[in-house]
Amino acid sequence: MVLPAILRSEVGFPDGGDFLARVENGVIILEPHKKALERVRNLVRQYAPAEEGVSVADELIVERHAEAARE
């Protein structure tokens, strides 16, 4: 899909950048991947707030190592 440069610059889409397309109430919404990821992370934080100083990725790595050690 080609978006005119004036539209891309107005909404902050980089030239040749990737975006997410979705339909809401019959309207097509285009969102840069970075903004979509930020939106999803904010949604996740509402349901699983991170403890200060604790990385979910680090917790997952520790769990995986523990599982591997048990096998």
Layout: helices, strands, pairs:
Blueprint: H1 5-11, E1 19-24, E2 27-32, H2 33-47, H3 56-70
Antiparallel strand pairs: 1-2
Brief summary:
This is AbrB family transcriptional regulator. With 71 residues, this protein is α+β, with helices and mostly antiparallel strands.
Pick out the low-confidence regions: none
Cα distance spanning the termini: 49 Å
Rg result: 19 Å
As a percent range, the share of strand residues is 15-25%
Mean pLDDT: 84
How many helices does DSSP assign?
3
Shape: elongated
List the main descriptive attributes of the protein structure presented here:
71 residues; single chain; two-stranded antiparallel ribbon; alpha+beta; AbrB family transcriptional regulator
How does this structure look, described?
The chain contains three helices and two strands, in the order αββαα. By secondary structure, it is an alpha+beta fold. It has one domain. It has a two-stranded antiparallel ribbon. The model has no long low-confidence stretch (mean pLDDT 84).
